[in-house]
Write a structure and sequence with these properties.
422 residues, alpha/beta, Aspartate Aminotransferase, domain 2, three-stranded antiparallel β-sheet, 14% strand, acetylation
C-alpha cells in the first residue's frame, strides 16, 4: 500500500523547499525582524488596493465570475500598452500575452510547455529554486553555470559577479533547448549589461535555443544602471519568453498575478499547459491590476509613476541596510537592482558557535543560529545552487530590504546588540 502511493519519481524525494522550512523557523522562534522572504511589510500604493476594494463592491456581478482563461481582456490589453513601447513592437494582447498565477506559474508554463524528455536547459546560478525542479518535472536536464565574484574586495557590487564566457559557451550542445535568464537578478541584484546580454543572445541564436527571461524585478533598478530586455536585441524576439509580475510591480505579492509575453507560436505551448493546469486566474485581482496599470499609464512620463518611484523609495533602504551590515561584520554585495542583499558572513565565524545546528551547509547553520541569537532572519543562498555548487553559497546570507524603515532600524539595533554581547 505504502509503496503503491509513493510520491512519483519526477518530484524527487519531496524535500521541503527553503521557503517552507524558513517560514516554519520564523513561526517557531519568532525572530524580531524577518528579512527572509521577499515581500514588503508595508502598504501597496493606495490606488492599487482601492481598485480591489471597489471591485469587491462593484455593481457588475461578472467581476466575481470566471473571465477569459488566457487573461482578463482589460488586463492583457493594458499589459500590451505598457510593454509595446518598451520592446519596440506592437504586442497582440490576445495571442502574445498570457496571464498566470504569479510569475511562478508563468515559469511553469514556459518550462513545461517547451522542455521535453532529455532536453537540456542552461541555468545561471544562483537561481530561483523552482527552476531546477520544474525542468526535472518536464523530463529536462539542467546544466548549471555560476556567476562568480571577480574578487573578494569590500564595496563589491552585483556587477562584480560575472559569467565565464568559455564555460558558458561549452554548455551549449545540440541537446540544449532553453536558457533561463534572470535580470535584475535574485538574489544578487545583478543587472545584466548590454554586452553580457549580447553574449547570451548570440549563443542562443547560434545554437537555436529559447531564452526564458525572468524580469520580475524590472522596475527596481538603481541609477545609473538600466534594465535591458533581451527580447529587444536583434533577432531575439523570435526566441524569447519574457516573464513579469504584478506582485513585484505593484508590491502586492499575495495577489499572485503574473504574465508572460512572446511570439504567438511560442505562446501556444504555454497556453496548453495553462489551460490544463490553472485554466484561469481570479477575475477581481486581474481587474484590479488592469486598473492599476491604467493609473500608471496616465502618468507614465511623470516621476510620480510607480514604475519609477519604487526604485527611488527603495534606494535609501538599500543603502541603510548595506551600511548596517558592513558596520556589524558582514561584507555585503551592493545590489544594482531588486530588493535583496547577499552578504558574506564569514568575518563573524569566530563569534558564533554553529555546532548545535545539524544542517549540511554552513549558511543554513549560520542563518538559523543567527535568527535564534540575534533575532534577525535571513535566507541561506546555497538553496539557490545545484548540489554540485552549493559550496559557492555557503559563506553568504540573503537579506531583504523592502521593509518598513522602523524594522530596518530595529535590525541595526539588534545587530549592534548581538555584536556587543560577543
Amino acid at each position: 500500500m505504502t509503496d503503491k502511493f509513493r510520491l512519483p519519481a519526477r518530484y524527487g524525494a519531496g524535500e521541503k523547499s527553503v521557503w517552507v522550512e524558513y517560514i516554519q523557523l520564523a513561526a517557531d522562534y519568532k525572530p524580531a525582524v524577518n528579512l527572509g522572504q521577499g515581500f514588503p511589510d508595508y502598504h501597496a500604493p493606495k490606488h492599487v488596493t482601492k481598485a480591489l476594494a471597489d471591485i469587491a463592491t462593484s455593481d457588475n456581478p461578472l467581476l466575481m465570475q470566471y473571465t477569459r482563461g488566457f487573461g482578463h481582456p482589460r488586463l492583457v490589453q493594458n499589459i500590451a500598452k505598457v510593454y509595446s513601447p518598451l520592446i519596440g513592437r506592437e504586442l497582440d494582447p490576445f495571442n502574445e500575452i498570457l496571464v498566470t498565477s504569479g510569475a511562478y506559474e508563468a515559469l511553469y508554463s514556459a518550462i513545461l510547455g517547451h522542455v521535453d524528455e532529455g532536453d537540456e536547459v542552461i541555468v545561471i546560478e544562483p537561481f530561483f529554486d523552482c527552476y531546477d525542479f520544474m525542468i526535472k518535472c518536464a523530463g529536462g536536464i539542467p546544466k548549471f553555470i555560476a556567476l562568480k565574484p571577480k574578487t573578494g574586495k569590500e564595496n563589491m557590487t552585483s556587477a562584480d559577479w560575472v559569467l565565464d564566457e568559455k564555460e558558458l559557451s561549452s554548455l551549449f550542445t545540440n541537446k540544449t533547448k532553453m536558457l533561463i535568464l534572470n535580470t535584475p537578478h535574485n538574489p544578487l541584484g545583478k543587472v545584466f549589461t548590454k554586452e553580457e546580454l549580447e553574449l547570451i543572445a548570440n549563443l542562443c541564436k547560434k545554437h537555436n535555443v529559447l531564452c526564458v527571461s525572468d524580469e520580475v524585478y524590472e522596475w527596481m533598478v538603481y541609477e545609473p544602471n538600466k534594465h535591458i530586455r533581451i527580447a529587444t536585441l536583434p533577432d531575439m524576439w523570435e526566441r524569447t519568453i519574457t516573464i513579469g509580475s504584478a506582485g513585484k510591480t505593484f508590491s502586492v505579492t499575495g495577489w499572485k498575478i503574473g504574465w508572460a509575453y512572446c511570439p504567438a507560436n511560442l505562446m501556444r505551448n504555454l497556453q496548453v499547459v495553462h489551460q490544463n493546469c490553472v485554466y484561469t486566474c481570479p477575475t477581481p485581482t486581474q481587474e484590479a491590476v488592469a486598473r492599476s496599470f491604467e493609473i500608471e499609464l496616465s502618468r507614465i512620463n511623470s516621476p510620480e509613476c510607480y514604475f519609477y518611484s519604487l526604485a527611488r523609495e527603495l534606494l535609501p533602504k538599500r543603502d541603510f541596510l548595506v551600511r548596517t551590515l558592513k558596520e556589524n561584520g558582514f561584507n555585503p554585495t551592493i545590489p544594482d537592482g531588486g530588493y535583496f542583499i547577499v552578504a558574506d558572513w564569514t568575518n563573524l565565524g569566530k563569534k558564533i558557535d554553529l555546532s548545535s545546528e545539524q544542517d549540511k551547509y554552513k549558511d543554513y547553520r549560520f542563518t538559523k543560529k543567527f535568527a535564534k541569537e540575534a533575532g534577525v532572519l535571513a535566507i541561506p543562498p546555497s538553496a539557490f545552487y545545484s548540489e554540485a555548487h552549493k559550496n559557492l553559497g555557503e559563506d553568504f546570507a540573503r537579506f531583504c530590504f523592502i521593509k518598513k524603515d522602523e524594522n530596518l532600524a530595529l535590525t541595526e539595533k539588534l545587530l549592534k546588540k548581538w555584536n556587543a554581547s560577543k
